[in-house]
Design goal:
Helices cover 31% and strands 26% of the residues. It has 14 helices and 22 strands. The longest helix has 25 residues, at 87-111.
Length: 473
């Protein structure tokens, strides 16, 4: 198609088919809008195909493999040879999962009247977008557009990812053999999740983190639980350490690191770069359209997810704040409903986060420090899983549940948990904060026994000074 000759007219163009983009497109279809969803690779984006789902598939497999070593103390004797790992079979299993989910998204788009276009989009004007689809170039004229192009792994300027020796998170999840040794640059959530998983599979893992402690975005007393488990797994943690240089020699990666003015050379079979992610906002033509950018490349938006160009919206990793799939999905629904004429907005700050380390970490709302900075008189109470029956039976006694409470009003301000199944348990905290619950509301709610959810009950009771299963302070 010749540019400018014929343009297909649609209500909305959604650029990017990840969790935010396809959710927005489906909601627009439900609202009766004509919508074109443009994705240059696969629907589901990084999260489904190269991130969230594949990484959790690795973590699940590694956890089950690691549990085999603890079965003997429960009385289970495994006959025959020791268990082994076949990453070729795991890759096939992982691909079956992502394919199933990808197919489901395609079907949902089709059933909701969404036109899916595979290609690379570029804004030609404030109301036109061109899409390169193989040998063709199609043009769409839109009333509204949603930018949902996600993010990509960052790299160090002296450590170009070659996907053979120097990996990013995508190539790490495509390995067909467990590396004998693995150096990980970055001790944030991606580095720690993958590092612990590979350690369980038998890799000698070293994690290099510039901050004083791993998982710098979480409170030290929470990340300390993960640090303890990492050390039990034999992971070497080098905090307050920077990588000065990285080279590949004779089939090994050599990292020159520095800590307290002293240099050291680390050698490993592979090196994994997990130094953050950057928003995919360059090369879309948004600058020419007049869309404003923040210094970090993200797009500033209002509570309706509008950019400074009123009819162009932005959602997900291209916006400010944490890069979370569920945040993107919520923003996608809001943007779609605003376009559809409904009174919708991002009116809540209660977006939970989850880190799939061992033990898992999850949280929502304020930390104790944040609450104090906002002027609250804070009461913090924890319940350790060492006092939880199911945690002991499951051989997962690490961690605790913690509630942050306003001492005067007893209003719940935050829920934080480190322990087994934290990713599922945090839902109770999100709902409690959304409902404006007081700590009594949780303490008076009957929690089933024996479950990990009793951790919230114990923490709430402790905040009120009448915990049953721990000594009250």
């Amino acid at each position: 198609m010749v540019v400018g000759e014929v343009a297909v007219e649609v209500d909305t163009v959604v650029v990017g088919g990840g969790p935010g983009g396809y959710t927005a497109a489906i909601r627009l279809g439900q609202l009766g809008k004509s919508v074109v969803l443009i994705e240059k690779n696969q629907l589901g984006g990084v999260c489904l195909n190269r991130g969230c789902i594949p990484s959790k598939a690795l973590i699940q497999m590694a956890e089950k493999f690691d549990e085999l070593t603890h079965l003997k103390e429960m009385g289970v004797e495994l006959p025959g040879k020791p268990a082994s790992i076949d990453l070729h079979k795991w890759q096939k299993w992982k691909q079956e999962i992502t394919t199933k989910l990808n197919t489901g998204i395609h079907q949902l788009c089709q059933q909701n009247g969404v036109t899916v276009v595979t290609g690379e989009a570029h804004f030609l004007s404030s109301h036109r977008v061109g899409v390169e689809t193989g040998n063709a170039f199609d043009v769409y004229k839109f009333e509204h557009a949603i930018v949902a192009t996600g993010s990509s792994p960052r790299s160090l300027p002296f450590a170009e990812v070659d996907h053979t020796y120097i990996l990013d998170s995508t190539s790490a999840l495509e390995l067909t053999e467990v590396p004998r040794s693995l150096s990980i640059v970055g001790g944030g959530y991606i580095g720690m999740e993958l590092g612990l998983a590979f350690a369980k599979l038998g890799s000698a893992v070293t994690i290099v983190e510039m901050s004083p402690h791993i998982l710098p975005a979480t409170a030290p007393h929470i990340s300390r639980e993960v640090l303890n488990k990492a050390e039990k797994l034999g992971v070497t943690i080098k905090s307050s350490t920077s990588v000065e240089h990285l080279t590949v020699n004779d089939g090994y990666v050599e990292l020159i690191v520095q800590s307290n003015g002293e240099q050291e050379t680390l050698q490993s079979e592979k090196a994994l770069m997990t130094v953050g992610r950057s928003p995919n906002t360059k090369g879309l033509g948004l600058e020419q359209v007049g869309v404003f950018f923040n210094e970090d490349g993200t797009l500033p938006i209002n509570e309706e997810c509008r950019t400074n160009i009123d009819h162009i919206f932005a959602i997900g990793d291209v916006t400010e704040g944490p890069a979370l799939a569920h945040k993107a999905s919520k923003q996608g629904i809001v943007a779609a409903e605003v376009i559809g004429g409904l009174p919708s907005a991002i009116d809540s700050s209660y977006i939970p986060y989850v880190v799939f380390t061992d033990p898992q970490i999850a949280g929502v709302g304020l930390t104790a420090k944040q609450a104090q900075e906002q002027g609250h008189r804070v009461k913090t109470a924890r319940f350790p899983f060492q006092a939880n029956g199911l945690a002991l039976v499951a051989s997962k006694p690490d961690g605790f549940a913690e509630v942050i409470v306003d001492e005067e009003s007893h209003l719940l301000l935050g829920f934080h948990i480190v322990g087994a199944d934290a990713s599922n348990l945090i839902g109770e905290g999100v709902l409690a904060l959304e409902l404006g619950a007081r700590v009594e509301d949780v303490a008076l709610t009957v929690h089933p026994h024996p479950t990990f959810s009793e951790g919230w009950l114990g923490a709430a009771e402790a905040a009120l000074g009448h915990a049953i299963h721990v000594v009250n302070k």
